[in-house]
Amino acid sequence: MEQLKAKLSEQEAHLSKLIAENTRLSELEAELGAIKQREEQLSEFTRRLTERNVNLQAEHLLTISRLEESEQHLEQCKTDALQSEAVTADKLAEHQLQIEQLQLALTDLRDQLQQSRDRESELRSELMVEREQSDLTHKRDLGRIRDLTRQLARVAQNRSMSLTSGLNPNRTEDANMMDSETADNESVCKLSLDSPTTSSHSVEVGAKSDWPTVNKPIVCLGNTLMISGEEKTYKEPSEQSELHFDEPERAAWIAKIDRLQRIQLRLTDKMEFLQEHCFQLTEELNKKSRIIQSFVLAQKHFGSAAPNSVDANRARIAQTGGLMASLYGGKHSKDAYDRDTYLEICQKLQAVLEDTLFKNITLKENMATLGSEISSLNNMMKEIRGGVCENCRQVIHNLKPTPPTSLSSHSIASIPKSVSRLSPEPPAFCGGGVHA
Q1: Are residues 166 and 272 in the same domain?
Q2: Are 329 and 323 in contact (CB under 8 A)?
Q3: Fewer CB atoms inside 10 Å of the end CB: C or N, the chain?
Q4: How high is the pLDDT of residue 211?
Q5: What are phi and psi of 113, to 5 degrees?
């Protein structure tokens, strides 16, 4: 019995061991199944991860190619913009040069036109003078011819009367009368040669008088007209005598023209000086009006009643002494400087203040122009960025401000992040999968 009990106990112990081994084997089988399932899951995850990695690499390469194309397009746009700016600058310089050349040509043409007009006016004045001279000469010659004709007629009449009478006393009287008439004519001729006014007056008188014409028969002793009875026309005086009589009047007219030209030149210089002075005064007036306009626009309550601070400032200045104190207080101080000195100092300070204000206004306008240019450049940059795709815009936003020549590690590292933000990982594989 004891042997059976011992054997039974041994069998029970062996059975318990077998049960324990069986349970351990079942646990191992269950764990093996779990391991196989985990292995299948891991293999599936590895496969999907490999596919995703391949897709990401393809997208990465595609994004890099697009980025390179965008950079090339941007560089091309920059080069085109620079070329267009250079071409525009060249064209602008050419146009400015052409404008300057045209202005110079226009100035030359204006000068030539002015010279032509001056020459035309001079020629017209000379022509008028020559016409007046020729008219005066013609009238004077006509008067002289009439005087000579009249004298010849009187001489012929006196000689005929002396021949008929045959008395010597009458002949001497006639000779005396002829001498007096010739002396009177010579004095008249001298007066006409001395002054142009007397000559013109004598010419007018001769022109107004109605004397016989030149073509008149002359009857005198020893002349062929008494024998033949034919009429012979009177010959005009020679050119030498005409030149001899015209020379003094021509010299007088030339002296008068010279004097008038000198007066005109002096008046022209004075007019040019006054025009330049008026131009300078106009520039100063425009500058001061611009300063006043800016000051009026800046002051909101300009033109209203003066505040109390002005009166207080005047009282304070009146207490300090000086010229302004004497002006404000109504009392003259002996220690103050001369009024002219103060006025000169005030004029200098006013000139400095006007220059400073004008420079400030010009600087303000330049700053406004610069601000408008900066805003236009910003709008241009926004338009350029708006024309790029979304992925390239984000990549450009993540890049450095300086355009890189090659892809940097930062830009390459930023591409998968942006792609992962666009296509997130499935929730089943977040954190490394199940039981990671």
Answers
A1: yes
A2: no
A3: N
A4: 38
A5: -65, -40
The letter for the amino acid at 406 is S
Q: What Rg, from alpha-carbon coordinates, does the chain have? A: 62
Same domain, 125 and 171: yes
Nearest 5°: phi and psi at 47?
Answer: -65, -45
Neighbours of 383 (CB within 10 A): 9
d(CA 243, CA 241): 5
Cβ atoms of 231 and 217 closer than 8 Å: yes
- CA-nearest of 271, 320, 170, 156 to 223 is 156
- For residues 169 and 265, state if they share a domain: yes
Dihedral of the alpha carbons of 17, 23, 25, 31, in degrees to the nearest 10: -150
Q: d(Cα 96, Cα 219) in Å, to the nearest integer?
A: 87
Residue 387 domain flag: no
How does 173-212 read in b/e, with b if 16+ C-beta sit within 10 Å?
ebeeeeeeeeeeeeebbeebbeebeebbebbeebeeeeee
Domain ranges, residue 130:
121-278
Does residue 201 lie within any of the structural domains? yes
Q: Are residues 270 and 169 in the same domain?
A: yes
Cβ of 254: how many Cβ atoms within 10 Å? 11
Residue 137 has pLDDT above 90, yes or no: no
Dihedral sign for Cα atoms in the order 72, 74, 77, 82: negative
Domain assignment of residue 246, yes or no: yes
Look up the pTM and report it. Answer: 0.25
* pLDDT value at residue 235: 42
Query: Cα separation of 206 and 147, whole Å?
Result: 9
| Alpha-carbon dihedral 179, 183, 188, 192, rounded to 10 degrees | 120
**CB hemisphere CA count around 107 (13 angstroms):** 6
Same domain, 128 and 274: yes
pLDDT at residue 401 greater than cutoff 90: no
Answer yes or no: do 191 and 274 share one domain. Answer: yes
- In the chain, the number of structural domains is 2
From CA 320, how far away is CA 309, in angstroms rounded? 17
- The span from the CA of 300 to the CA of 232, in Å, is 103
Q: What is the pLDDT of residue 176?
A: 53
